[in-house]
Amino acid sequence: MSDSYDVIVIGAGPAGYAAAIRAAQLGMSTACIDKSLGKDGKPVLGGTCLNWGCIPSKALLDASHKYHDAKENFAAVGVQVEGVRIDVPAMIARKDEVVSGLTGGITGLFKGNGVTHLAGTGKLLADRKVEFTAHDGAVQVLQAGHVILAPGSVPVEIPPTPLTEGYIVDSTGALEFDAVPPRLGIIGAGVIGLELGSVWNRLGSEVVVLEALEEFLPMADERVARDALKTYKKQGLDVRLGCLVTGAEVADGAVNVTYKSGDEQHSITVDKLIVAVGRRPYTQNLLSNDCGVNLDERGFLFVNDLCATDAPGVYAVGDVVRGPMLAHKGTEEGVMVAERIAGFKPLVNYDCIPSVIYTHPEVAWVGKTEQEVKASGDAYNVGQFPFAASGRALAANDTEGFVKIIADAQTDRILGVHVFGPQASELVAQAVISMEFDASAEDLGLTMFAHPTLSEAMHEAALGVAGHAIHMVNRKKK
Ligand code: FAD
Ligand code: AMP
Q1: Which of 57, 195, 211, 274 most suits a substitution to test ligand 2, by most atoms within 8 Å of the C-beta?
Q2: Mutation choice for ligand 1 from 21, 42, 54, 156, CB with most ligand atoms inside 8 A
Q3: Which of 334, 346, 354 is nearest to 152 (CA)?
Q4: Which of 187, 225, 310, 312 is 20 to 30 A from 160 (CA-CA)?
Q5: pTM of the model
Q6: Which whole number is the average pLDDT over 445-461?
Q7: 135 counts as catalytic
Q8: CA atoms of 393 and 385, how far apart (whole Å)
């Protein structure tokens, strides 16, 4: 092992591994240090996203959706199935296979691109030196031309609900249940809580989601949040807003959860409790006192718009820095930093980060919500198109939701796009591309979309901004 590299990356999640691969592609000698160990106790690449986040949760969401669809919706399209049942251990085993295939893929990409994988812990010292402690305890000090910190985040734990093996778990534990819990409690109606709640609700759990805030999905467009809440409740998620969890006690093989709603104390008893109250930046033992990197008041590594820390030659990317904790945001930051180190001048467009909730229907958006645009005081127009009027959605028997496009009234520039509906995660990419290219709603309206597709709902919503959607009666005629 060399003791000096052009670039050393600490953390091999989507932010760190992308930075390492891009740096190596650009001809820099690159090492990536990561300390994660898989279920088999061996080092794994891919960080939270591949091992305990995006990928395993989507594997369970897709599996549980197939089961639920077969059970509840196939008959409506003339497909009769009997004896549909869920095999939870098989579902979890397949999820593990998907994870190991993908984490193994990163190992292959590191090899193919010439990134040195150092399995163990990295700590930043002064002057771009990095202390590397291998899993066997051997310590070596490495010198880097540039350092990229990408240590990610970990679940927030709250004092009232200490994690208790088999009963009170975080999002990682919720991906490993070996049977469907008859009664499931979830603390937090954020993205992770809703996705995990959907998985187990579809498989038969009675799910109660306790959320401290009075408002549901405050970061989403109000109309989308309102309709999504209605749908989730219809699906059986018992979402209780304004409920602050104050305690949890394991007794007689169950969890008694106490919570406050207004001035009243309530309690529920569940078989398992998932704590999904958010994530926090992970910086434990990452920085020496004299390394020159500072934290902000919320514990994130302090960086500028280009992800540079206060220490020359040291950058930080991904969940550990400001901005939404999303894999794609971290990846783009990692690639930007690697390219900037190589002398190129890319930027991350923080105004165009798509957000997705992978429930069914999915929720996805990019740009401003209507309430944000309204608050800015600028005049705007809205075009909205329901999937109930989409031929493809009707053919697929999947008609819930709508596409909503908000455009500036003066310039017609698209300010925000909100999708609640089937394949919203894929549809929103069209909006992201449009906004990246500074498109107007008219540009999108003048674009041809294949028929019949769900994408036509995006087209019709764009036409609707000016009041001339074809497949619905427009309120304002132009
Ligand atoms: P991480 O992925 O957290 O990786 C950091 C890595 O660095 C880890 O392997 C860690 O062990 C290692 N590390 C930390 N400190 C050190 C050190 N000192 N030395 C060596 N190694 C170190 N995001 C999406 O965009 N879409 C989704 O659908 C989605 N679903 C999610 C579902 C769940 C259940 C969860 C929990 C998260 C989900 N996320 C999703 C969020 C996503 O996982 C994170 O935004 C993303 O993983 C952050 O990437 P990162 O590279 O910054 O950090
Ligand atoms: P997110 O940060 O999007 O993952 O969402 C986490 C959610 O958990 C937030 O909406 C918080 O309001 C909620 N939350 C945090 N602590 C509690 C608590 N003690 N009881 C109920 N909800 C909580």
Answers
A1: 211
A2: 54
A3: 334
A4: 225
A5: 0.97
A6: 98
A7: no
A8: 12
Task: Please give the pLDDT value at position 2.
Answer: 87
**Cβ atoms within 10 Å of 415's Cβ, excluding its own:** 24
Q: Where are the domains of the chain?
A: 4-154+280-350, 168-277, 361-464
Instruction: Please tell me the class of the 361-464 domain.
Output: alpha beta
pLDDT (mean) for 199-207: 98
Nearest residue (by CA) to ligand 2, atom 7, is 188
Tokens of 322: 């400001």
Question: What six digits make up the tokens of 256?
Answer: 């008694």
Q: Which of 451, 459, 468, 471 is catalytic?
A: 451
Choosing among 3.30.10.20, 1.20.140.20, 3.50.50.60, 3.40.630.30, the CATH entry for 4-154+280-350 is: 3.50.50.60
CA of 244 relative to ligand 2 center, distance in Å? 9
Q: Looking at domain 168-277, does it have CATH number 3.50.50.60? A: yes
Token pair listed for 6: 């052009």
Nearest partner of 202 among 72, 95, 55, 361, judged by Cα: 72
**Per-residue pLDDT reduced to its tens digit, 107-161:** 999 999 999 999 999 999 999 999 999 999 999 999 999 999 999 999 999 999 9
**Ligand 2 atom 4, closest CA:** 278
